[in-house]
Amino acid sequence: MDKKGLSVEDIQHLLSHGIPMSEGMGVIVDGLPEDGAVLRVPYSDSLVRPGGTISGPVMMALADAAMYAAILGRLGAVIMAVTANLNIHFLHRPGKSDLIANAKILKLGKRLAVCEVALYSIGQPEMVAQVSGSYSLPPEEGSGG
Amino acid sequence: MDKKGLSVEDIQHLLSHGIPMSEGMGVIVDGLPEDGAVLRVPYSDSLVRPGGTISGPVMMALADAAMYAAILGRLGAVIMAVTANLNIHFLHRPGKSDLIANAKILKLGKRLAVCEVALYSIGQPEMVAQVSGSYSLPPEEGSGG
Amino acid sequence: MDKKGLSVEDIQHLLSHGIPMSEGMGVIVDGLPEDGAVLRVPYSDSLVRPGGTISGPVMMALADAAMYAAILGRLGAVIMAVTANLNIHFLHRPGKSDLIANAKILKLGKRLAVCEVALYSIGQPEMVAQVSGSYSLPPEEGSGG
Amino acid sequence: MDKKGLSVEDIQHLLSHGIPMSEGMGVIVDGLPEDGAVLRVPYSDSLVRPGGTISGPVMMALADAAMYAAILGRLGAVIMAVTANLNIHFLHRPGKSDLIANAKILKLGKRLAVCEVALYSIGQPEMVAQVSGSYSLPPEEGSGG
């Protein structure tokens, strides 16, 4: 097998059965472009905050899941990869529509992966939030690290 | 009345009835020290991620709620205050116990409030995550801003 | 005049005569694409850190200057715009060559502008650092803000 | 020798002779409290930005140096430790006086150290900037990492 990364189906399964918040939000893996991942949260009234827009924590959770998916899609089942840092700028209010996260790996080191994520709201041209973050990667088996 | 900030009860009501993710996590307002807020998420198996610890998005949601509570506790019902930016460093894995957020306002300007939040896991001495962030404050009524 | 933004020459003058650190680094304004700015620091042995690469503070200073230039290029002489927040991820070591900052405005609100900046080292394909940040914008004259 | 960390004098020497920007700013190591470091930049007119206050890049450079000093003071001569990420919130304008950075190590892992830094301006009670960041630590010799 050439590719060691997980497939869309594998990642969808992990997100839907292992991570409660992703489950609760109904996160869908839309695709795995090279060095990236596209995830979606279907709009639901249960995700809004005062003012009627999808809440910040939903956006952060989706962005975090998208970085995780991009790394799994590239490296395979590094299930124990953990977020080291996440930074989000909220830009424009999302509309009452699905939220899309477009994650891209900027650096894949031995110990740390750095990603950026653009969040969009279906039907709006502007980015609704910009995220960057790093994931700490577990040492490979047998490496003694 | 001297104090224009909201009370613990008011903020608890807002978090429990207006913000779905806080509701779902069962966020509790433990107190409102000066220029700050202490919030808690009771431990629940429904909040864990692969590896058995409380997930990052739960920590981010709690930190965001704690900054919001600190601002409401100081300024009153600025319900439309919105997170402009949030940065989190994950430090140590939380245990299977309640998660505590200790938020403190670092700056309260006319347009922007900046806070830092220390997250702890009951029974562990080390901080589990360090958060900083800013909230954009709506213009006061009548200010035309 | 249609465009209220400053020109490349105006911004170059400001950076070279008003901001000591930019002066010291010899920052050059390479261009002002729409909603953005491209700045450059010519390589110099006086900018390196242990290990022989351009130091982190030089990269942060260049990124900050690039965000400032993008905002001046769009809004005009808002000289008192001040950085509210800056977040940088260092990705790959820059080489012994000029450092380029490509800044883009993600949001231009009344009070806050949010930008992202990609830093490159001439001759290397990978981004050397990823920056995002926000600038606080002074109230317009006569707005009473 | 019990302590493997570097001394104030060792770190002062490194900052004054190896890091051009620190040299140019005249950074002084004031002390090495446990798990931390206190650094100072003497006020100089050559460090100001339009508006007459010490520029943001000077604050970022000082905060970065303070994190580096805290790590060297704890771990010894890990000269190749490199900044992975730095996040700064600018809070209040510093005065025309020395700038102080108070850095504290929040986490010291095998691969990553996370610090926070509070910046103060002598004579002002409020924090002028809040910084958090992570340093990537080189593998120990012989560890094969």
Keywords, separated by commas or semicolons:
globular; 34% strand; 26% helix; 3 helices; 6 strands; Thiol Ester Dehydrase, Chain A; homotetramer; alpha+beta
Describe this structure in words.
The structure is a homotetramer of 145-residue chains. The two termini of chain A are 26 Å apart. Chain A has a single domain (8-136), classed as Roll (Thiol Ester Dehydrase, Chain A). Chain A is globular, with a radius of gyration of 15 Å. Chain A has a six-stranded antiparallel β-sheet, with helices on one face. The model of chain A has no long low-confidence stretch (mean pLDDT 88). Chain A contains three helices and six strands; from the N terminus they run ααββαββββ. In chain A, β5 (112-121) and β6 (127-136) form a beta hairpin. Chain A is α+β, with helices and mostly antiparallel strands and 145 residues long. Chain A has helices at 8-18, 20-25, 56-75, and strands at residues 28-31, 36-41, 82-90, 99-108, 112-121, 127-136. β3 of chain A pairs antiparallel with β3 (82-90) of chain B. Chains A, B, C, D: Keywords: Hydrolase, Membrane, Transmembrane, Transmembrane helix. Chains A, B, C, D: The chain crosses the membrane at residues 65-86. Chains A, B, C, D: Residues 51-124 form the Thioesterase domain.
Task: Spell out the blueprint of helices and strands.
Four copies of one chain form a homotetramer.
Chain A: H1 8-18, H2 20-25, E1 28-31, E2 36-41, H3 56-75, E3 82-90, E4 99-108, E5 112-121, E6 127-136
Antiparallel strand pairs in A: 1-2, 2-4, 3-6, 4-5, 5-6
Protein name (chains A, B, C, D): PaaI family thioesterase
Domain Thioesterase (chains A, B, C, D): 51-124
Keywords (chains A, B, C, D): Hydrolase, Membrane, Transmembrane, Transmembrane helix
